[in-house]
Predict the structure.
Amino acid sequence: MKTRTLGQGLVVSAEGLGCMGISQSYGPADEAESTATIRRALDLGVTFLDTADMYGPFLNEELVGRAIAGRRAEVVLATKFGNERRADGTFVGVNSRPDYVRSACEASLARLGVDVIDLYYQHRVDTTVAVEETWGAMGELVAAGKVRHLGISEAAPATIRRAHAVHRVTALQSEYSLFTREPEDEILATVRELGIGFVPYSPLGRGFLSGAITSPEQFSEGDFRRFSPRFQGENSGRNPAVVETVAALAAKLGVTSSQLALAWVLAQGDDIVPIPGTKRRAYLEENIAALDVVLLPDDLAAIEEVAPRGVAAGNRYPDEHMARVNV
């Protein structure tokens, strides 16, 4: 397994595994297959697992904890706090108060069944609390040995700088793919200036770039993509047309659409570690094979031609969720 380094010394597999879909958002859960997928990832050398307390809620951390039991030394474990939810799934709000930071960390440690979290993210920026206060509390967790590295998610450049001034930021996690290229505005330049690693989530455009999705009718009742702007109205017809051109290019290169999309993200810099999510071993193995795909300059130019920046129709989230990103 190839490795990459996030920030100043957090070495991880060059591709991680996003675990959110195991417990929410992408249809019915299958704990047995999801557990087998996590363990297969470890067998294949994937060390970087990404979860969060809100996924499930809470159930995701518990499942990941059970899956890695006895194999903790093989894992670089990332989890998050800040999106506060009740056990029934009700969203309370974004919460980054120092007391909540401490209690959330203790709860995550218990659910995961570990003594220390390798990478602890502020999941969303709380506009009611100065980021300096939040990061002061996060820094205390590092000093106490409960957390090794700190990260932030969907934060604007100025917020990243303020957090970094309090305690070194090891990684920024934000959405990035052929369908979502906003980080190219200022985000990537900022994290590179500061020596911060970049962890793209949804590098396959929530499955769209796999080429397997042609209609929102394919989604089960509990799949949040039924309400995604990119899968609604005219967008549900426009975006598959783009994916078809990507698929045709992938076929010419002898790879799958997913592998081409992941290889493109990986080619954007050695400081980038995507975390495609899946709960099935077959898709996991397909995604990992993208690490062996070499895109030459002509290939990258061809991809840019068929999928230029801004090619995706529709926002990546509904308006209420968009208000909580790049804050």
User: Anything to note?
Assistant: The radius of gyration is 19 Å. The chain has a mean pLDDT of 93.
